[in-house]
Amino acid sequence: MSTIIEARSLTYTYGVGTPFEHTALDNVSFRIEEGEFVGIIGHTGSGKSTLVQMLNGLVTPSSGEVYFRDKNIHDKDYKLRDMRFKVGLVFQYPEYQLFEETVYRDIAFGPKNMGLSESEIDDRVREAARFTGIREEQLEKSPFELSGGQKRRVAIAGVLAMRPEVLILDEPTSGLDPRGRERILELIKSYHRERGTTVLFVTHSMEDIARTVERLIVLNESKLVLDDIPENVFLKADFLDSIGLDVPQITKVFMLLSEKYGINIPTSVYTVKYAKKIVDELMAKGEIK
Amino acid sequence: MNSFISADSIKFEYKNIEGQTQLALDGLNIKIDKGEFVAVLGHNGSGKSTFAKHMNAILVPTEGKLTVKGMDTADDDLLYDIRQCVGMVFQNPDNQLVATVVEEDVAFAPENLGVPREEIRKRVDDALEAVGMTKYKLHATYKLSGGQKQRVAIGGIIAMRPECIVLDEPTAMLDPVGRKEVMKSIRMLNRDLGITIVLITHHMNEAAEADRVIVMSKGKVIMDAPPKEVFWRTEELYDAGLSVPQPVELLLLMRKDGAEIEEGVLTVEECAEALAKIIKSARK
Predict the structure, then answer these.
(1) N or C of chain B: less Cβ packing under 10 Å?
(2) Chain A interface test: which of B268, B277, B281, B284 (most A C-beta within 10 Å)
(3) Which structural domain range is residue A225 located in?
(4) Both A50 and A188 in a single domain?
């Protein structure tokens, strides 16, 4: 595996010299390997959105550097525009950014700007539509006729159509109902599986992220506080709770079983399936030490 | 007896962009009594927001009748009385604040109602106290967090002294801390001030805190029962595009395997207790 993105000591301070001076990001470093599926969690104001905007060069760090494929993206002769086609960013509430007359044209906007041929654009639009579950006949509709969940999928398709090497999604499930959330999660998972694209998934929903990612980066008060596989992160459920994150209910159940009922049980449980497996194992043993 | 809010076979039709007639509410019957805390669940497009907007006459039924304290929402002359009685809080905190200073925002409604100056002062102070925002009364509204903004919006409604507050997904755009703050305020308003609460939400654990849960699908009520009952009717919930709280999901899986589990377990604490019992009995 090779490193695709590297954050080196990223710091961002805004309003320097004014009473509103605030450090939004404080000395954050990590490497993302090609093909990884990483979750970034943190409460509102922890710096997650600032961080992801830095990763595709929309926000320039006050100090520190971002490397994309071992090249410093802040170098004078670095082609930032080309890099933005490779690091696709889906913003929060992306449905508000739809603007074209038809769904097709909206999805085609990115590839068109890349200077691709008409037939290549057409291929990509249809592929992105397929991934996001947008039907053929919807392509000629106005995006404003669609439901909220559909609009969001069109907005995501617009980024997928650029075939980015890294896909970054900033809170892609917020404001959706459970079925809508499930659909977005599924489509991101299957996209990652089929294309092997590196995915960074920003959220504050621990239940969503627990089932989805291979690695979690946790931000708190502008600093990176944890960077580990989900199992190890959820072992620190007390800590997560203390920094304002929503620990999955099932994790809380297992914490109680261990603390209140004195049952020797791992508390790194975060999905119902895994919880069932652990309980089954306990029952099978018949005896718990 | 007349209920506080009574929706009697209401239908609501609208034309979509292509000019086709759509039915957002399809013969809805709901009665809500004074002092209740009711949660309304349903997937996007189930009609729950349309119903919410009927309760303070932003929308009026195409067919059927909705009354608030016996007042027909279709009667234009009663509009002010209805809206003073039922306040509404929406999803996006940024769209609801009108003033630049917290206490001025909360004073907006009573000012418009022509409440005397001294009385406004008292109402604003009381309202800020109720939502725990007293120490921010002179702060700029735009600098507050999402949860704080939402609490100011709720404060602005309370200052109107409504008997009922309808909240349409008030926590959808908030993080866990903001959600907790807002839910705490809502519970307090219901329990301590006796305000009737209708909470439209997507979060199953928020609905679990209500006295009663109404589940909507395709413009109709498909379930109307206490949370302990509703959340165990999992097939119906899945069919309605909703999910089930994780503790219930786990216990149901265990029951399928033959474990003895009583229905109605809902909270994390109850689930842990039930599991501890099973595990300990297996140990013997």
Answers:
(1) N
(2) B268
(3) 3-230
(4) yes
Question: Are the Cβ atoms of A250 and B253 closer than 8 angstroms?
Answer: no
Average pLDDT, chain A: 89
Q: How far apart are CA B28 and CA B222, in angstroms?
A: 10
- A284 part of contact set with chain B, CB < 8 Å: no
Does A244 sit within 8 Å of B177, measured CB to CB?
yes
Does residue A225 share a domain with residue A268? no
Q: What is the pLDDT of residues B258-282, one digit of tens each?
A: 888 888 888 889 999 998 888 887 7
User: Nearest Cα to B154, choosing from B250, B89, B85, B225?
Assistant: B89
Strand ranges, E, within B123-234: 164-168, 196-200, 212-217, 220-225
Domain that holds residue B266: 245-284
Residue B62 resides in a domain: no
Read off the pTM. Answer: 0.80
Cβ-Cβ contacts under 8 Å, A287 against chain B:
283
Residue A245 Cα, gap to closest chain B Cα (Å): 6
Task: Determine the residue of chain B that is closest to A274 in CA distance.
Answer: B250
Q: Residue B246: closest CA among chain A residues belongs to which residue?
A: A250
What is the number of domains present in chain B?
2
Contact between chains at A177 and B91 (C-beta distance less than 8 A): no
Question: Tens of pLDDT along B80-116?
Answer: 999 999 999 998 888 888 899 999 999 998 998 899 9
> Rounded distance, CA A199 to CA A196, Å?
9
Can you tell me the distance from the alpha carbon of A269 to that of A231, in angstroms, rounded to the nearest whole number? Answer: 7
Complex ipTM: 0.75
DSSP character string of B27-74: EEEEEE-TT-EEEEE--TTSSHHHHHHHHTTSS--SEEEEEETTEETT
- Same domain (yes/no): A271, A181: no
Number of domains within chain A = 2
